[in-house]
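Key result, reporting period 2: structure in, sequence out.
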């Protein structure tokens, strides 16, 4: 089925919320829907929209997959607690890490995350809760890039011919699928979400796993988590579209305390973009870059080299895998 885009000009936030709430309520009927809140803009907006439309016919989980950013579970619980939206935290760290064990190919890593998320974790939650629907924040760009064969975004299912009812035992509802990121932010604002929430830089579904080149282990995620925290602290003031840190697979020879240190390489990316479809690197001040390098090598054990990506999308993509 062809999806019609709703452009930012065409979008009336309040009307969109009313229409989608009616549709959602009709579709779910007196059944139960569940959704996973990751704290990203799309999942936060879909959670709020779902709660407005369905009330206690929607149960929201925060899936702790072990690949989230530093302090993320606490931050999300605090934000949604303040909005009066109940969230249940579900610990699935072991399931994700064992599915990712030994995998280095980007598409295989994505597939492992998709299967663990939809089949194992959600399959279980659906069976336990008796839900018939999964509500998720897929947006227009996710579909476009997956269908174009750029990357398989982990939340794309039916557009790839996957029958979720048959394969996982539940139906997926995607109320934001006609919108791009600026449209999602506009709906977030109309829903009354705080600015810091709907204006957050985008964050990928596969979370920090999208920023680990090579095998995703708890140790390697923890390195990239620290690097991400530093990048976010230092670059949030730039107003850039997105900024991130990537852990490279290869190590390089470095020097520490006068001795050889065969250590890790971190790559920083900072993007100017409006919709993530194309992007250019931000012309960061060299002082900022130097501070980033100093902090990464000083605060993260084992990091000896820090680089800045100067490539545009295309040929680069925003994330690393
Ligand atoms: P890429 O890396 O494809 O990212 O240029 C485009 C935008 O989508 C965000 N994003 C994802 N990226 N897999 C990704 O690789 C996902 O599942 C995903 N979900 C969201 C990404 O952060 C960037 O803003």
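The corresponding designed sequence is given below.
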């Amino acid at each position: 089925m062809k999806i019609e885009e709703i452009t930012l000009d065409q979008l009336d936030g309040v009307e969109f919320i009313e229409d989608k709430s009616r549709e959602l309520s009709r579709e779910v009927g007196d059944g139960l829907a569940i959704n996973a809140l990751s704290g990203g803009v799309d999942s936060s907006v879909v959670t709020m929209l779902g709660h407005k439309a369905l009330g206690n016919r929607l149960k929201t989980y925060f899936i702790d997959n072990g690949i989230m950013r530093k302090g993320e579970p606490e931050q999300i619980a605090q934000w949604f607690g303040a909005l009066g939206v109940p969230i249940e935290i579900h610990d699935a760290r072991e399931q994700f890490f064992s599915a990712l064990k030994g995998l280095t190919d980007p598409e295989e890593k994505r597939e492992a995350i998709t299967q663990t998320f939809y089949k194992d974790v959600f399959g279980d939650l659906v069976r336990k809760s008796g839900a018939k629907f999964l509500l998720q924040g897929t947006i227009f760009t996710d579909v476009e890039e997956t269908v174009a064969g750029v990357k398989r975004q982990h939340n794309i299912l039916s557009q790839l011919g996957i029958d979720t009812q048959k394969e996982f035992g539940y139906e997926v509802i995607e109320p934001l699928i006609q919108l791009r990121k600026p449209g999602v932010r506009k709906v977030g604002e109309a829903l009354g979400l705080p600015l810091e929430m709907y204006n957050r830089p985008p964050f990928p579904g596969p979370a920090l796993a999208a920023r680990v080149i090579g095998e995703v282990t708890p140790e390697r995620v923890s390195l990239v988590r620290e690097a991400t925290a530093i990048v976010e602290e230092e670059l949030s003031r730039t107003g850039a579209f997105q900024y991130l840190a990537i852990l490279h697979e290869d190590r390089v020879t470095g020097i520490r305390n006068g001795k050889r240190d065969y250590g890790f390489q971190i790559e920083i990316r900072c993007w100017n973009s409006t919709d993530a479809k194309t992007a250019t690197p931000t012309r960061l001040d060299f002082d900022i870059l130097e501070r980033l390098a100093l902090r990464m090598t000083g605060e993260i054990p084992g990091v000896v080299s820090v680089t800045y990506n100067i490539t545009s999308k295309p040929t680069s993509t925003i994330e690393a895998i």
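The chain is about 40% helix and 15% strand. The longest strand covers residues 259-272. This case is discussed further under Risks and Mitigation.
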